[in-house]
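Many groups now describe folds with learned vocabularies. In that spirit, our science desk offers one protein's residues alongside their backbone shape tokens.
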Amino acid sequence: MTDPFSTISSYKDASRYASARGSRTPPGSVTGARQKQSIILIVLTYLVFFALLLAPLLQMIAGAFEHGLHSFISALTRPAAIHAMAMTGAVVVIVTAINTIFGILTALVLVRGEWLGTKLRHVLNSLIDLPFAVSPIIGGFMIVLLLGPNTIMGAMFAWAGIDIVYAFPGMVLATLFVTFPLMVREVVPVLQEIGTQQEEAASMLGSYDWTTFWRVTWPSIRWGVLYGVVLTIARSLGEFGAVLVVSGNIMNKTQTATTLVYQDVENFNIAAASSVALVLALISVMLLLVMEWAKKHKEHKAHKAHKAHNGQKGVH
């Protein structure tokens, strides 16, 4: 005879299995929900991008050409704008050159300096990253406190006929303080990635340090240096806080393009401020395009080298 209780139990198990199976979400609906979430996230990203970047840029263009092309050209060719642009260009050129040389040397010391202890290397890394943690205005104020006209060092430089604060050298120092980590942080990872085997082999073959750098190290780090140069130029063009504190924003003497925009806004000359800001924005966009081209060119060369290496392995 069949046990009625076992029959009831089997019916219960079957009903539970059927209900559990029916409650499962079909795979297609899960994929559809994920696609909807992805679409929503993409739409939100584009909305934020438009609100934070495109909308102000369009407003800037409209403000620059509010009174026509003649007003735009007049705002850029006035003596204050020409002097500010020239001052900005001089600061960018000098800062980029100094950053490139000393940034590469600092990166080499941090990565290849075996004589550095672990604690000293950590201290140097922290000092290099200090501009990332400190506000540019505070950095400029530190320079004023150290080299201002009422300080001992500032008085010594003034006695020698060299003005630091409220003059061009102070503007260069302030921009260097803000941009110095950019080159170092681009070159250090590349040096760590390539290692020291090729450099050691060149040294064992009798190559001088200078020759080893140009023939072995430089070809490996040049793209990192290019990225650092582009970032330094872009950051120098847009630097405002530290330069404002150190320069004093003296018209036709220590005024840069960014401080000129600030002064135009303070004077309610929105059209002139928009014209200068638009030029700075276009230069920054061009620099970013150059950086993207450099990245694609580097990836293309690396892909070709990888294919050539695999081809040689296949021949052997």
